[in-house]
Design a protein that fits this description.
This protein is of the alpha+beta class and 548 residues long. The protein has helices spanning 40-51, 56-70, 112-116, 127-138, 143-156, 162-175, 179-185, 201-213, 216-220, 222-233, 240-245, 273-286, 295-315, 325-331, 334-346, 451-464, 470-475, 496-505; strands at residues 27-30, 33-36, 80-86, 92-97, 158-159, 197-198, 250-252, 255-259, 262-266, 364-370, 375-381, 391-392, 397-398, 428-432, 439-447, 479-481, 486-490, 508-512, 521-527, 533-537, 545-547.
């Protein structure tokens, strides 16, 4: 079995005026609002907006813009964003900014290598339009005020963390393959060291332009021309017409299930919310009261359920255009769930071959809440670590590589003109059912490719079924079952007893380091009955929670 490795990073004093990562404060309690993100500066941006009179939507959007600056490995202007909002009046809305391939995409024009990185790996960026749509529709502050923290962060810079140094070092060679990415995201062709200040003047200028004239410029104005020209010069396929034809994010109702005394809401395909909801329904059948069961058995069940939901998606994958409410309801029906549960109990589900290649994946997640009752859970990504590893040198952002998720064989997510990429993003809300209406209990989401789903399942059930605090549930060692019936398991959960149990049902266990960044990064807010909030940022990332 492989043993994970935790790397330590040397710290140096921050430069004057630099934004410093305040490690060691992942949890917070507050009565006036809450923000939790994967980077301290983004949490500060959200908290500042709440203090300035903004609501949870304003705060979430401000944090998302800020993460586009201070967490470029996971998100940015070149990516996509999905948001689940619970408004103060009880309304729940999804703002789904899934992207599409350019018109010129085909298997002939995009090779397997092209799909992974480079200018031909990109789908139409949707994050700018999605963030502006959400804030304009449900926020209360001016756009410029909400974007100002991100602009300031790009201009003044922030202090690079040990995790970011390791990520830059890991991707250094790929970033150096093009002049723009190497120049913008490395320092003199090397990774920024822990403690050094990273400033992004080109991105600051782009953000200031968006704050002044709006994101329409990104799709039909001066910025769109700069993107199309950059693509033309570098062999990319996104054209000015592709950008102009983008109609903006889709607003819709979330998917929902009843889970004991709760209702759980998440997002429809192409995102991964249906996997999270299906996993919860399977867990409910397998273990009605896990609080009294041995921890080893609970880990074993979690691994089985993760394997089961991804196996189910592989067998019954449907295109988002075909994902009507009736079909999704059938997919989450008790009959369907009982069938899966029976397979698990009888151990009849055979491994899916060729399915064990799970890369690190890269995404970011954040949650915000305000005293009025608005709650937001938001996931955004550029797909892989540093996306396509190529950047727009003039505008200062990295492009996504979402075409890497599209298949080259007949498939609902087949690589083709205007195809939609597959995603595991699962922003999720848990509400306690009551005679006087449902009350928000938990806003949650995660980063980490397929480990998004397993992480969310583990934290939700830890809190609701095993009586853990949110901090305990987020910190507890993680487990993730792969399609090929192998398992990732974090120390210190890898006891002899658990490994013996897992060996009966799985082909092998890869042991990861304690608090391994690979196992996903959860951000969550717990809403208490007394109106206060508990926020928790996953210690596997750099984030903090800030309560008002």
């Amino acid at each position: 079995m492989k043993k994970g490795l935790i790397q330590s990073a040397e710290t140096t004093p921050p430069a004057p005026g630099a934004r410093t990562a305040q490690r060691g404060h992942p949890q917070a309690v507050g009565a006036g609002g809450m923000a939790t993100t994967a980077f301290p500066s983004a949490s500060e941006a959200a908290a500042g907006i709440l203090r300035a009179g903004g609501n949870a939507i304003d705060a979430a959007v401000a944090a998302a813009w800020a993460l586009s600056v201070c967490e470029p490995s996971g998100s940015g202007l070149g990516g996509q964003t999905t948001i689940l909002i619970r408004l103060a009046d009880g309304t729940l809305r999804v703002i789904d900014g899934y992207s599409r391939a350019p018109e010129a995409v085909s298997k002939k024009r995009v090779s397997r290598k092209d799909q992974l990185r480079g200018f031909r790996a990109c789908t139409i960026p949707t994050t700018p339009a999605t963030l502006e749509f959400a804030q304009k529709r449900y926020g209360v502050l001016p756009r410029a005020a909400v974007m100002e923290p991100a602009i300031r962060l790009a201009e003044e810079g922030y202090v690079v963390t040990g995790l970011q140094h390791r990520q830059m070092k890991m991707c250094r060679k790929a970033l150096l393959a093009t002049d723009a990415a190497g120049r913008l995201f490395l320092k003199a062709r090397r990774a920024y060291r822990t403690g050094e200040v990273f400033r992004q003047p080109e991105l600051a200028a782009t953000l200031r332009r968006l704050a002044q004239v709006g994101t329409e410029d990104f799709y039909r104005g001066r910025l769109a021309e700069a993107i199309a020209e950059d693509m033309r010069q570098n062999g990319g396929l996104i054209t000015k017409a592709d950008l102009a034809e983008y109609e903006g994010p889709r607003e819709c109702e979330p998917l929902a299930i009843v889970y004991g005394d709760y209702r759980v809401f998440s997002v429809a395909p192409p995102s991964g919310g249906v996997l999270t909801l299906l996993g919860l329904k399977i867990l409910e059948h397998l273990a009605s009261d896990e609080r009294n069961r041995p921890a080893d058995l609970w880990y074993e069940i979690l691994a089985e359920v993760t394997h089961a939901v991804f196996r189910d998606r592989k067998r019954f994958l449907f295109h988002p255009r075909d994902a009507a409410a009736a079909l999704l309801s059938q997919h989450l029906s008790d009959e369907r769930v009982c069938e899966i549960v029976e397979h698990i109990r009888a151990r009849r589900d055979e491994p899916v071959t060729g399915a064990d290649r799970e890369g690190p994946g890269e995404t970011t997640h954040l949650c915000t809440a305000d005293a009025l009752g608005n709650v937001v859970t938001l996931t955004q990504s550029v797909q892989s670590l540093y996306g396509a590893k190529v950047a727009n040198g003039r505008l200062g952002f990295l492009y996504n590589n979402y075409l890497s998720t599209c298949k080259r064989r007949p498939h609902p997510y087949q690589l083709d003109s205007h195809c939609i990429p597959l995603s595991n993003a699962s922003p999720t809300l848990v509400l306690k059912r009551g005679e006087n209406g449902d009350r928000p209990v938990l806003a949650i989401g995660a980063a980490g490719s397929r480990r998004i789903v397993s992480s969310i399942l583990q934290v939700i059930t830890g809190v609701l079924n095993r009586g853990m605090s949110l901090e305990e549930a987020v910190r507890m060692p993680r487990i993730h079952g792969l399609l090929g019936r192998k398992v990732y398991l974090e120390r210190p959960a890898a006891s002899e007893s658990l490994l013996r149990h897992l060996s009966r049902r799985f082909r092998g266990v890869t042991i990861k380091a304690a608090s391994s960044n690979f196992m996903g990064g959860v951000q969550g807010i717990q809403c208490r009955e007394d109106g206060t909030f508990v926020g928790m940022a996953d210690p596997r990332r750099d984030g903090i929670a800030i309560g008002l």
